Structure prediction request, 53 residues.
Amino acid sequence: MGIYQDQANLLKVMAHPVRLRMLDILCRDSECVCHLSAALDKRRRARSLETAR
Prediction:
C-alpha cells in the first residue's frame, strides 16, 4: 500500500491549478522565480512559498 500512498500524496500536492500551470511552464523550459511570478501574475514571495510545499 506504500507506493499507492506515495502516488496519492503526489497527486494531492499537484492538484492545484497554479501548481499545474507552474509544472506546465517548467516542462517547456527551466525558469527562475521572477519569470514564473510574471507568468503566473504572483508575487515572488508567494511563488517561493508555493514551490516549497
Observations:
- The radius of gyration is 13 Å.
- The chain has one domain: 2-52.
- DSSP finds four helices and no strands in the chain.
